[in-house]
TrEMBL record:
Source lineage: Eukaryota, Metazoa, Ecdysozoa, Arthropoda, Hexapoda
Membrane topology: Multi-pass membrane protein
Transmembrane parts of this sequence: 99-118, 138-156, 201-218
Matches recorded under InterPro entries: Mpv17_PMP22
Native species: Anopheles merus
Key word Transmembrane helix present: yes
Protein name per Swiss-Prot or TrEMBL: Mpv17-like protein
Signal peptide range: none
A Pfam family that the UniProt record links to this protein: Mpv17_PMP22
Protein family per UniProt: Belongs to the peroxisomal membrane protein PXMP2/4 family.
Superkingdom of the source species: Eukaryota
Main subcellular location: membrane
A cellular component term, taken from the record's GO annotations: mitochondrion
Keyword DNA-binding: no
Keywords: Membrane, Transmembrane, Transmembrane helix
Amino acid sequence: MCLRVWGGKSGTVHRERSQLASEWSVHCSQFGTLSKIQSERAAAMATFLRAFGRFFTKHPLAGNGLVYGTLYVGAEFSQQTITRKLLTDPPQDIDRPTLARYAVMGTFIYSPILYNWYKWLDKTFPGTAKRIIVKKLLLDQFILTPPLLVIFFTGMSLMERQSSITEECRQKFLPTFARSCLFWMPAQTLNFVLVPPKFRVVYVGSCAFAWVNILCWVKRQKMLSSN
């Protein structure tokens, strides 16, 4: 009797151990599958980054245009998500024509200007000495920025087919330029001191993600009546 009871408990323990071993095997298999998937994703990402790096090196203008245009549209999309989806009841659809206008402005207008500007600036004023950085900052902020703002407001007004393509620029240029000084001068100090020349436009595009959100906010402010 005692033997039969002991044997029964032993069989139960054996079955429990077998079940635990089976579950452990399943968990190990799942972990191995997950690790394999993560490794494959990491390898795919590394391959993509290498391919993009080669493309960027071989076609810097096109690469900068792609990155800068994407960031420009992303900034406007984030603004629309907040203003049209989160802060509006009921939520409104994304304004795709406006996204298209920002894509044109960022990819085909701003990007070539910035690429050639920084290429000329680095060639004309090489180095990171203090006086060189100051010259670059002043030229960038007071020579490049005003035309860029004029191009932005008049270009967007033109694509929007407004009756006056200069009215918005006249009303919003000065306050926008003041904000740009507060934003871009610290950002450009880091740009000229730390960022390698071939990544200048990408860095500026990353900063532009924040700056264009400011521009989008300014753009949405109502204009005073011309009367």
